[in-house]
Amino acid sequence: MLNLPINLCDILKVNCILTNQEGIPIDPLSPGSISCKEIPQKNGRKNINTTLPNGKLITLQKVFVQKSGFIIIEITGPGTTCRSQPLPFSFIESFILCAPEGTELECNITEFDCIALLNCQNGLVTSVDLFFTICQDVEIVADTVISIPAKLCTPRQEIKINSCPMPLPNQCPAVFPSSNTSAGTQGKVNSIKLTSDTFVSTNHTFQKELACVSVKKVYDWIVRPSTFQLNFNINDLVLDCDIPPCDAHLFVHAAYICEGDLQGKVLCGNIPVQGAQVSFSAEPNIVTFSPDPTVTDANGNFDTIVTVPPGTPPTPVTITANTFVSGLPITTSLDTIVECHGPCVIELFTTDVIDCDGFVEGRVMCGGRPIEGAVIEVTSDSEDVTFAHDQITTGTDGNFFVGVTVEPGTPLQTITITASTIVEGQNIFTSIDAQVVCSEDACVLTLEVPANISCEATITGSIFCGGDPVSGADISFSSFPNIVTFSPNPVVSLANGTFSTTVTVPENTPFTSVLITATTTVNGQTVSTHVGTNVECPGPDECPCKFRIGIQGNSAPTTVNITQQGVPSTLAGTINVTAVQCFITAPMCNPAVDNFNITFGSGGTTINFIQGRRIHIDCTANTARVHGTAMASGNLFSGIFDVEIILTLLPGDTGTWQINASDLFGNTFTTTFTATLNPLTFVGDCNQQP
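^ that's the sequence the OP posted. Answer follows.
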C-alpha cells in the first residue's frame, strides 16, 4: 500500500436537503416548509426618513424578517451515504418598507437553494459550509373595506321548459339547441334581458347596487433574493452512515493468555488515516487496554496491549474499537477468547499408565508468557522409577519433555511425579499422579541422547531381552515435535544389541525441547523408550519471511476430523485462526514476533490450540506456513500439540487453510476450509511494507 496523503475532500461529496423537524425531506416551496415571519421589536417598528429620487421626503419603517427551518447534511462516498441529524437554521434580515402601525407582514418563499462544501485540513474534513439562497415575496398589508358597484344575486324560481310560453319577438335574444326540449319547443333559454337594471339567468336574478367588500390593502411589496451562510464543525455533527466511507480494521488474536497485542489500521478507501484517536472496549468488561485511547501513525496503524486479570477462566469476549474520522463514527468488533491462570505456573501431563517406559511433558509460563531456559527438575515418590535426565531446560516455547523408565518386575502402583523450578524469583512446582508397571521378563530398550544437540549429534542405544542382547532388531526413531531427522532410520542392532544413528537438526531451528522416541518389535512384543533433549541450529535467516494472517470476522464454518483416544470422529462448527510471525509494519522483520492460535467450537465442544510458538516458518508467492507447538485447551484435548498451519492465498481476498495438529497421546485434529481473509492479512518478504 502506498503511503499517500489522505484528502477526504477528494473522495467525499456533500449535499444539504431541506427537511421537517423529524428529518423527512420536504418541498421547499410548499406552504410552511420554511417559516418566514416578522420579528416584533420591543418598541414597535422604527421609523426611517427617506428621500425619494424626486426629492420628496417620506417616512418608512424598518421591518425585521426571520426565515427558519431544518436541513440535513448528506455525505456520500464510495458505496456509502452518511446523514446528519436534522439541523435547525435561522436567518434574520431587515427591510425598509412602508409599514405603518396596524399593518402586517406576509411572506411567501418562491425559491430555495442550499449548496454544501467540505473543508479539509491535512487531508481530513474539518467543517462543512452551507450557502443558502432564498427568494421571498414580502408584502405589508392591512384589512380594509372598499365599496364597489355590484349586482346582488338573489335566487329565482326554477324555469320549467315544458310550461314556458313561446317568447315574444325581441325578448329572447339567444336560444341554444337542446336535446331536452318538449314537442313544439326548439331550444332552452340561457339568458333573457328584462330591464336595463335587472337580469335573469337560468340560475340567478341580479340587482345592481353599491356593495362594501373587506379586502387586503397592500402598502408595500418587494421581491428580494437573500443569501446566507452557515458553518458546522465536523466533530459537532452526529452522522449516521449506511457503510462508513472510512473503516477501522482490527487484527484480534484468536486467544489472549494473560496479555497480548491488538493491532489495527484506519483507512479511507485505500488511503491510511494519520492522527485518528482509537478507543477500546470489551464485552464482558474483564480486560484492559494500554494505551487507551491510542493514535494512528502515518500509515494508519495503531496497536494496544490487551491484559487479562489473573485467575480468569477461558471466557469469550468481544473487543470493540471506536474512532472518528472527520466526524464520521467508525466502530468495529471482533470476538476472541481470554484466560489467565496466574503469575507463574508449570503445566504437567503424562499417560494414565506407564508400562515400563513413558514420558512426562510440560510447559512453564509466567503471566501467559512461555518461559525459555527454566531448569526443570523431575522427581517421583517411587524408587522403581527413573528419569532419562535429572534436569531438563525449557525451550523457546516453554516446553520440556522427560523420559520415564520403570524397573522390570515393578507391580502396578500409583506414583506421584513432581516438576519444580525457580522462575523470576518464584519457587514453583506441580505434581501429577500416574500408574506404573513393568513385567519381570520385559525387554529393555535404552537410548543415550545428549541433553543438548546443536545441529547434529550421534545417539546410541541397546536392546536386551531377559538380560541377553538382541541382534538384528530394526530400531525406528521419531521426534516430537517432528523436527529432526535420523540417519539411518531404521537402524539394525548389532550382535551385542547396540545401535547408533545420527540426529540432524534443520538450519534456523530455535532452542527447542524435543522428545526422541526409539521403537522396535521383538518376538511380537513392542518395545520403546523416550528421552527428552533440547535441539537448535542457528542460521542466518531466522525470519525468511513475515506474515500476519487471520479470518475475516474471526469466524468461519468448517468440519474437522479428530481422533480421541484412538477413536475417530467428525465435528462441524466454527473456527478462528490467527498467526503473526516476524511481522512488523515496516520494511524489516522482527524475530521476537511469534504467535499463533486456533479456536474451534461445535455445540458444547471446544478445542483450542493457544500460545502457539513457531519452530519454522516459510512463505512462497501465495502461501504462508508455520510449524510449531501450542497448548491444547477446551473440554476435549489438553497438553502440548505439534501444530502446522498452511494458508494458500486465493483471488478475491480469500484463502484455503490447512490445520494439522497431533500430540504424544495419539490425539489428532485436522481440517481444510476456505474463508475470506482478515483485511489486514499480509504475506511477504522482510523488505516489504504492508
